[in-house]
Amino acid sequence: MMDALRIPPDCSAKFDRIGEEFLAAIYSAATDRQPHNVEVLAELGHVYTRLGRYQDGLEVDHKLVRFAPEDPTIRYNLACSQALLGLHDEACSTLETALELGYDDLHFLTEDEDLRSLRGYPRFEELLRKIKAPDSGIQDS
């Protein structure tokens, strides 16, 4: 009887996607009602990224930067969206800004899959060399 109730792996992935699409619809409706709600916008951006809707995520990240221009994590997330879309120079510039604003999680920055397209990109590698320098003030946690 238990085998009959087991969900096949391909169905599980479909259910996950449906759940993410539902979340995107809920967060999108919430931002229509509260367009300046930074927390909901951030969650919407994360859901868009998980769904592979990188352009939509980029648009959300640009809104977030307008609402919280001094937030280093919001800048970091914008850089991730830019990298996912292959906008390497823009992503590097945004990462530099995030670091200037106080972003300091070097370990996450070097391991984040959203930034995978930047690995080996000369400007990104130079940025990593600078922040790994002992006098950079950034710690590898």
UniProtKB/TrEMBL annotation:
**Which PROSITE patterns does this entry report, sorted A to Z?**
TPR
Q: Which Gene3D superfamilies match?
A: Tetratricopeptide repeat domain (1.25.40.10)
Q: Which UniProt keywords apply?
A: TPR repeat
UniProt repeat feature TPR, residue ranges? 38-71
**UniProt protein name:** Uncharacterized protein
Provenance organism: Saltatorellus ferox
